[in-house]
Structures are given as C-alpha cells and as structure tokens.
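Good day; I would like, with your permission, to put a structural problem before you. A protein sequence and the structure tokens that stand for its backbone fold form the material at issue. Thank you for your consideration; the sequence and its tokens are set out here:
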Amino acid sequence: MISHRLSTIRSFQRILVMKDGNFITEGSFDELLNDCDYMKELYQKEEQELEGREQEPEGREQESD
C-alpha cells in the first residue's frame, strides 16, 4: 500500500520509507519514529496540520476579496 497519511499505516508491521523516489529505511511505525529523522519530521508536520484543522471554528467560510 502507498500512503501519504501516516495514520493509515500506523498498525502496519513493516513500513518502507521513501524520499524523492529513493528508499531510506524500513521498520514498524514506532521504530521509525524513534530512529528515522525524516519519519519524525513527517509525523510532526501531519500532527500540526491536524491540530490546525481542529482549532478552526466549524462552519467558518473563507472570506473573498
């Protein structure tokens, strides 16, 4: 499976990490978070995006110029 959402692959036993089309490393989700700086970076970025969405008021529409 190819996934761009880390939450999708959280329960997988073996995850291959690629960057710019190149294989970087492999392991379980927890192993990768502990050992792979790139995976940590992706995880932190995804968490920040999710937190930002949760803080937006519901029903808020974008203002047009």
